[in-house]
Amino acid sequence: MSSIPSDLEIARAARIRPIEEIAAAAGINAEAVEQYGRYKAKIDPARLQAPAPAGKVVLVSAMSPTPAGEGKSTTTVGLADSLARAGHKVMIALREPSLGPVLGMKGGATGGGHSQVLPMDEINLHFTGDFHAITAANNALMALVDNHIYQGNELNIDPRRITFKRVLDMNDRALREMVIGLGGPTQGVPRQDGFDITVASEIMAVFCLATDLADLRERLGRITFGYTFNRMPVTVADLGVQGALTLLLKEAVKPNLVQTIAGTPALVHGGPFANIAHGCNSLIATQTARRLADIVVTEAGFGADLGAEKFMDIKARVGGLAPSAVVVVATVRALKMQGGVAKEQLAMPDVAALQAGVSNLRQHVRNVEKFGVPPVVAINRFASDTPEELDWLLAWCAAEGVPAAVADVWGRGGGGDGGDELAALVAQTVSGPSNFRHLYPLELPVEDKIRTIAQEIYGADGVDFSVPALKRLADIERNGWSQLPVCMAKTQYSFTDDASRLGAPKGFTIHVRDLLPKTGAGFIVALTGAVMTMPGLPAAPAAMRMDVDEFGNPIGLT
User: Is 551 among the catalytic positions?
Assistant: First the structure.
């Protein structure tokens, strides 16, 4: 009995083309291509000889994630490959993986099976060094801040009110809280500090929302990293180091070009988490892809309550773009888990559990419609799915008036016929009308923006603001930041701020414990529940299974 090959084995067996061939086929002129080895390149948008962005955007989102797996990136890649197979000029725009989840529990973010972006191992590890550059820029800022305080503190910065942290692209709970500057007068000024994971850094958010290098510099300068003793905000521009930070990021800000197993071009660039940041790849990469393709398939992190909402209300607003369709990925396994089935029982046929869990999918689909964008449900097929379960789910989607198709892009690949039916539905949808709108106007007070998201997207009865959050609301109003959009930091596993409440709960309140103004990125982060900006590793990290063979080839990457 032959075993099913792993994603890594499938990736290593694939024929990968030189990146200059992929660039030429995508219409990228040679002057804009900066090669990073044989199979990766950076694209310089300033040297690109292509028209203004005009390609239609297909956003891939999902139901609430579960340990059963949904396969959003796999579906994104497979859908794009299938659209290309049908004759459309397509490009993919994805986030870069973070080393923390790769070595932890979630794994990589390059798709799976026969629907992957390549080279899978290099993308999942250090890639072109973008995250290292972002880490360096972030930590350079904090070194400069602490040095400024040590050298006399001309800006009157209150060390107790520094809101920016150092970062590391790793899950390391031991770094969440610490005291720095110990050891005497020559070692700096002691203060409480800590680390976030790189993908939670505001510099990552700035990097992904900047429209070009000049805008990147301006946004970096607007970052508020702390407050003075009289509680006035202090920015990077006040410190005068936005130029140095831009210098550290000038190469990283260029999008990275790679390819799928089927040869579809993909821009993989930027990577904020969607539960603690805005969860979308860089705007520069998306707009570059729109200059090169008729259809751009992109994704937003976690479920539609997080990544898709933030795509609509933050990224699309900044970029002036309107998605033409949203693909909501669902699986029979995940829906049964939402219906109360334990993970180890998911292979057992259970239409009743499917019926119980489908309320989660319904709420995500209806939420997409609130933005005026038509949804399409992609049922990502697993080997354990029965015809009865798949037929029931397709019939349910039809009864709900939502186009849906079963996609077997993991097993048969988008380059094969695994995603043909889904691609046909998406192509038909993007050719029709889309009346895109944001969920709220920017003029709405911050607390009302939060209530709108909580009630309209999560289904909450209301919002409870802690005393610190209420104080922060007053500071936001006083400092003139109230017209910024809101970025909710919430568990990805539930519509509530309690990860254990599955399905589509009713009768709950969202608890906002603090508000963090991200003035460079241009949004207010609302912290809810127990969301951590520095995750920890699980009891058995994926790193325990990783190694290299005698030729230096990776082992154990997923």
Answer: no
Which domain does 209 fall in, by range?
130-240
Question: In terms of residues, how long is the chain?
Answer: 558
Tally of CA atoms within 13 A in the half-sphere of 498 that contains its CB: 12
**Structural domain includes residue 232:** yes
Tell me: do 424 and 458 sit in the same domain.
no
Q: Can you give the CATH number for the domain in which 147 is found? A: 3.30.1510.10
Has residue 239 got a pLDDT over 90?
yes
- Point out the catalytic residue in the list 195, 382, 481, 523: 382
Give catalytic status of residue 382 as yes or no.
yes
185 lies in the same domain as 258: no
Residue 127 appears among annotated catalytic residues: no
- Take residue 349 and report the two structure tokens written for it: 């046929």
Residue 221 CA to residue 219 CA, distance in Å, equals 5
Confirm whether 302 is a catalytic residue. Answer: yes
Q: Is there a contact between 62 and 50 (Cβ–Cβ < 8 Å)?
A: no
pTM higher than 0.85 for the full model? yes
Side chain identity at 497, as an amino acid letter? D
Among 41, 93, 274, 521, the one annotated catalytic: 274
CATH number, residue 55: 3.40.50.300
Report how far residue 244's alpha carbon sits from residue 250's, in angstroms, rounded to the nearest whole number: 10
Q: Are residues 261 and 374 in the same domain?
A: yes
Is 343 annotated in the active site?
no
Q: Which residues pair with 157 in a beta bridge?
A: 228
In terms of Cα–Cα distance, which of 40, 18, 58 is closest to 255? 40
Last residue of a domain, one of 191, 207, 240: 240
Q: What is the mean pLDDT of the chain?
A: 95
